[in-house]
Amino acid sequence: MSIIVLGTVALDTVKTPFGKRIKMLGGSAVHFSMSARIFTDVHLVAIVGKDFPPQHLDFLRRKGIVLDSLIKTGGKTFKWEGEYEQDLNCALTKKTELGVLLEFCPSLASHQKNIKNVFLANVDPDLQAKLLDCLESPHLVGLDSMNFWIQNKRRSLLKIIKRVNVFVANDREARDLTGENNLIKAAASLRRLGPDMVLIKKGEHGVIFYCDKFKFCLPAYPADTVIDPTGAGDTFAGGFMGYLSRQKKLDVLAIKNAIVFGTIAASFNVEAFGMEKTSRLTLKDLQRRLTEFKKIVSF
Amino acid sequence: MSIIVLGTVALDTVKTPFGKRIKMLGGSAVHFSMSARIFTDVHLVAIVGKDFPPQHLDFLRRKGIVLDSLIKTGGKTFKWEGEYEQDLNCALTKKTELGVLLEFCPSLASHQKNIKNVFLANVDPDLQAKLLDCLESPHLVGLDSMNFWIQNKRRSLLKIIKRVNVFVANDREARDLTGENNLIKAAASLRRLGPDMVLIKKGEHGVIFYCDKFKFCLPAYPADTVIDPTGAGDTFAGGFMGYLSRQKKLDVLAIKNAIVFGTIAASFNVEAFGMEKTSRLTLKDLQRRLTEFKKIVSF
């Protein structure tokens, strides 16, 4: 079944110890799409400005991403400029130009309103709520956020959290939102805010999954080539949600597999700048690395 | 088969958000012993001063630890005072009194010299080399160290590393010693320094194992009660080395199991101050938690 992703389409300028890319295609919704598309149809909901290169639109279409609810408007596309130093786990934001994001009001084409799966990637929680309101009967709703909204729109965020099935946060966000330093306690505390399922992403240290029925801890794939981790979290979420969108039952096995596929997809993302690797990924690539990964983590 | 551990016996004063203990029994060799004893006979090589409480000696004897090479001398027992704030992964050292450690010259009783397994816990690398020289034909040699020796006795440390089978380091030490930020690269780089097997401990994030034949990544047990993590690394090493000491073949299965048992032992260590939990642990306790752990990490 199809999935909708609401988020950003950005022009990213990224510097890492391995090189620099200027205004390459980026953004939470695009990184999500690159892994979710491997499993299902992806409908992208976002906004870009007049300066958005047409070849990026062609690229997204060629990847099968449905752009019917991608708004093209005057003004400037959202831009992010970041740098990673030796510690590739930690991005230093150099510049953010919100541009058209400031006027973003997401909506859906009528044929998209009955789609059952949706991922609300990191944007203003009020916009996330607005998109959720457009859907007739959502079945699987995932949510991501960031520290900025935790600090500045806490109330709106707590309201939308109640309405979702899966909340995805990184370790710092989980700690900030709950005030719990212990991540297992933080996960339990997030669960009490509403979502049945909580996923805490720990970058190079993997993920923790928490629901009432079971916990699941998974290390990251041990990548010895990390070139640019930008978008790894969204790539993970895309693999996770994309895989789940295709399952009839959200049981333990399906959830664990979804987390594993998300982890594997993210491991490709960090191996190159932007979407250089993930845009070419196939299910076969994921499965091949999964077989190797299984040997590395099983006992 | 028996195992020798060289390390410290200390009186620890520890403050965490959950309470404080003053001059409780601690030290790398003691924490190691508490988990290694579950699998095999442990021979402790260390030094204590005149002020060392006799009840601690009785306690160690009751736990089956062989104290024939524990030196009791005049002067003061090694003391460490530390504090953990909200982030229990990070100890702030408040005070260190080396005391009798400054005059420590380890030696073995003659009946101990043919023991095949040895763990050189964190002390001066020259003392570690001295103890290794006492052994007639060591078979499995494990080594731990710390940043102080990496910075101040790098040459001695690099010399002893060449002589061991297993090098155990935490993530910071692995990065400092190799200059590699990526932990997989750091592990490979440590391997090139000599030891067949490299174990990188990441605290709450688990461990990475590296050897020429295979890699193994394991998350930590998801403990929601962390009271005092002091000694968790040594408890891990004790479980790992203790388990391996009992195996005939050091194959993939044995090594993975040893890492799992070390992880489980460490998970009990953090749940209480000092050795309050690990001193009462049985193989059955470890096996019970292992069954639960397997469900949490397998897919």
Tell me about this structure.
- Chain A is α/β, with parallel strands linked by helices.
- Chain A has one domain: Ribokinase (UDP-N-acetylmuramoyl-L-alanine:D-glutamate ligase, 3-Layer(aba) Sandwich).
- Chain A has 10 helices and 13 strands.
- Chain A has helices at residues 28-36, 54-62, 125-134, 147-152, 154-161, 171-178, 183-191, 232-245, 252-269, 283-297, and strands at residues 3-6, 10-16, 19-26, 42-48, 66-72, 79-84, 91-97, 117-120, 140-144, 166-170, 197-201, 207-210, 215-218.
- A 9-stranded mixed β-sheet of chain A has the order 5-4-1-8-9-10-11-12-13, with helices on both faces. In chain A, strands 3-2-6-7 form a 4-stranded mixed β-sheet.
- In chain A, strand 4 (42-48), helix 2 (54-62) and strand 5 form a beta-alpha-beta unit.
- In chain A, helix 1 packs across helix 8 (232-245), helix 6 (171-178) crosses helix 7 (183-191) and helix 8 packs antiparallel against helix 9 (252-269).
- The two termini of chain A are 34 Å apart.
- The model of chain A has no long low-confidence stretch (mean pLDDT 97).
> For the record, what CATH class of chain A applies?
Alpha Beta
Domain tally of chain A = 1
Main sheet strand line-up of chain A = 5-4-1-8-9-10-11-12-13
Chain pair with largest interface: A-B, 35 and 35 residues
Low-confidence stretches of chain A: none
Under CATH, the topology of chain A can be stated as UDP-N-acetylmuramoyl-L-alanine:D-glutamate ligase
Task: Give the assembly state of these chains.
Answer: homodimer
Residues in helix, % of chain A: 25-40%
| Estimated radius of gyration of chain A | 18 Å
Biggest beta sheet attributes of chain A? 9 strands, mixed
